Amino acid sequence: MSATAPRLEIRVGQPEPEFIPSPGKFGLRSQPVVRQKVLQRIHVEIHQLGVRPSEMLLGTINDLRFRVLKPIPVHLEFRQDGVVASWQEVDEFGMGNSISIACDDLGHTIAELFHSLAADESHLGPDLEKVLAVLKEHIAHRP
Amino acid sequence: MKVHEFEKIVNKLGLRTRNSGDRLAWFVYNGQTVVRTKRSQGNKEQPGDKIRQQLKVNEEQLAGLISCDVSLDDYVKILKGRKIIAPESQSASPLQPGSDKTGKP
């Protein structure tokens, strides 16, 4: 009788193989990791904003009818609702959301003021006569 | 200063006005333009201190102009006292509120 008995392999002491996913792939079991807490010091420096100018000289005005003979001294004030640029000698001012817009407005106002006062020169009160004289020192009509 | 406060002064003093980007206003007394001021267009808050300086009044007088405490006659007296109006000028010119600088309505 040549019966061949089936060959049985009995693995003893060897666990069943497990699929171990490679790191970074889906299916990786999350495991709690204890890390040592590292305190990092953050260095914060507060820099002062660039100092805004309070005085400047205006060399041009945005009106082609006029040219500036002598720079116009402008005082700048930064207020909650914008910037006020003023020429204190003649009590004139301009407003805007920025320095340049306020100076533009001031230049426009100065040109209008000159135009109006010069047109009415013979009927000015003493104060406005002085204002016109100051304006003539600083600006003139273009030829 | 609010826009309506500025306009109240314009009406009270009969300032002659012209719109040119900004709203320009002049006070004419006895045929002479003696004081000018302006406000920007729109409803923005106006710099009251600058307008006060242009009108040649102090803070109390400006508050009086906005309220009913300072009249046109009072204002003329203030300007005479400050030599903004020449002393020999005697009578105020009738000014039409809302007219332009050339006197046109």
Structural notes for this entry:
The complex is a heterodimer of chains A (143) and B (105). Chain A has 143 residues and is of the alpha+beta class. Chain A contains 2 helices and 6 strands. The longest helix of chain A has 21 residues, at 99-119. The model of chain A has no long low-confidence stretch (mean pLDDT 81). Chain B has 105 residues and is α+β, with helices and mostly antiparallel strands. Helix content of chain B is 35%, strand content 21%. In chain B, strands 1-2-3 form a 3-stranded antiparallel sheet. Classes of the chains: A alpha+beta (143), B alpha+beta (105).
Summarize the structure.
The complex is a heterodimer of chains A (143) and B (105). Chain A is 24% helix and 20% strand.
**Helix amount of chain A:** 10-25%
Report the structural category of chain B: alpha+beta
Quote the average pLDDT of chain A. 81
Give the uncertain stretches of chain A in residue-range form. Answer: none
- How many H/I helices of chain B? 4
From the spread of the alpha carbons, the general shape of chain A counts as: rod-shaped
The end-to-end distance of chain A, rounded to whole angstroms, is 135 Å
Provide the residue-averaged pLDDT of chain B: 81
How many strands of chain A? 6
Biggest interface, which chains?
A: A-B, 23 and 27 residues
- Computed over alpha carbons, the radius of gyration of chain A is 42 Å
Fraction of helical residues of chain B: 25-40%
Structural class computed from helices and strand pairing of chain A? alpha+beta
- Number of alpha- plus pi-helical segments of chain A: 2
